[in-house]
Amino acid sequence: MADLELISAFVNTADLEDATDEIEHGRGLVHWLTQHRLLQGPTYATERDAANACAVREALRELLRANNGIEVDLDRASATLDEAARRAGLAVRFHDGAIGFRPTRSGVSGGLALVLAEVGKAMADGSWRKLKACRSDTCRYAFVDHARNRSRQWCSMEVCGNREKARTFRARHA
Ligand SMILES: [Zn+2]
Questions:
Q1: pTM to 2 decimals?
Q2: Residue 58, CA distances (Å) to 10, 83, 93, 127 in order
Q3: CA atoms of 119 and 95, how far apart (whole Å)
Q4: Mean pLDDT for all residues in the chain
Q5: 143: CA distance to ligand 1 center in Å?
């Protein structure tokens, strides 16, 4: 099974409403990757590595918005992910009759590619469609939709769902 929680945790390293970003600098990126056991040993990440990681994260967020029925630029997002996969030498592997993805490079780009490896696995096993980003334009928080009919649209009905309902109500009665 693909690790959907890891992918959503990665996308949620940025909180768009609070304007906070855990991986915007090299140190934060190394910390996050180490914390999630995607990186071994002391490693250094440049500001460029951090910028690449943020670009990958936002490309993933776009795909998760597409999973929530929002129209996005799929080509552009795919190109960003493809480039990151190429940089890390992400390769298709087979084990126990199942498909897997492994980066051939180590370090920060390899660690980042381990997140992409889970994306590949999720796309292969069909669980990918459960991963979504909140429909609220200002929120876009990643979540796993566990509803049987995959009908969930908001990260939280209490926060974003109600806010959106109020907005629609105001617009209708303006
Ligand atoms: Zn939300």
A1: 0.93
A2: 10, 14, 26, 20
A3: 17
A4: 94
A5: 9
